[in-house]
Design a protein that fits this description.
This protein is mainly β. It has 2 domains: 40 residues, no CATH class; 109 residues, Jelly Rolls (Sandwich). It is 2% helix and 44% strand. It is built from 1 helix and 13 strands; from the N terminus they run ββαβββββββββββ. Strands 5, 6, 8, 11 and 13 form a 5-stranded antiparallel sheet that branches. A 4-stranded antiparallel sheet has the order 7-12-9-10, with no helix packed on it. The longest helix has 4 residues. It is elongated, with a radius of gyration of 32 Å.
């Protein structure tokens, strides 16, 4: 250990000694020793002992769903709306995919929601994204999952044609 004298606070007092810590040596840099069960040390400062970790996670750490809406053909009739809601209470954000599979137009609103609690009759919504898809386009949005539910409201503005739509969500964070 290195000790250095320091100037005393009052004249006439003995010098103070400050502890400077352990010297920087290879022995102090390797406080853990790995042995083979005997006195043989495996690795050292000149020959590091490699440690590799290969843990496989058996379950996903994020929610992945791919729901379909409307009829089995994913149709939204002229002038109709469809709503999909996902429990995203465990996530900070969510990827939301919306794909228009047919010709036409669909209006999309992605929102966060805190549903009603017992003895309360109101719902709190916040629109995260609002856009229109046309002609078989795909849109991917990253939105805040600030409520306990992330919802997708789809509206077919046509008065004559059905539209086919797919929606998927993946929670992140």
């Amino acid at each position: 250990m290195q000790k250095k004298p320091c100037k005393p606070q009052n004249p006439g007092d003995p010098p103070l000694v400050a502890h400077q810590g352990e010297p920087n040596t290879p022995a102090n840099a390797w406080p853990v020793k790995v042995t083979d069960g005997s006195s043989n040390v495996l690795g050292g400062s000149d020959q590091p002992f490699p440690v590799s970790v290969g843990n496989r996670v058996s379950t996903s750490s994020s929610l992945q769903v791919q729901p379909v809406i409307g009829t089995p053909l994913n149709e939204i009739n002229p002038g109709d709306t469809a709503v999909l809601e996902f429990d995203t209470s465990d996530f900070h954000e969510a990827y939301v995919w919306v794909q228009l599979l047919s010709a036409g137009t669909v209006d999309v609103e992605i929102y966060s929601q805190i549903p009603p609690q017992p003895n309360l009759d109101f719902v709190m919504n916040n629109t995260e994204e609002s856009f229109t898809l046309t002609n078989s386009k795909v849109s991917v949005k990253v939105v805040n999952a600030s409520g306990t539910i992330t919802g997708v409201l789809l509206t077919n503005p046509s008065s004559t044609s059905k539209v086919n739509v797919l929606v998927a969500l993946k929670g992140i964070g």
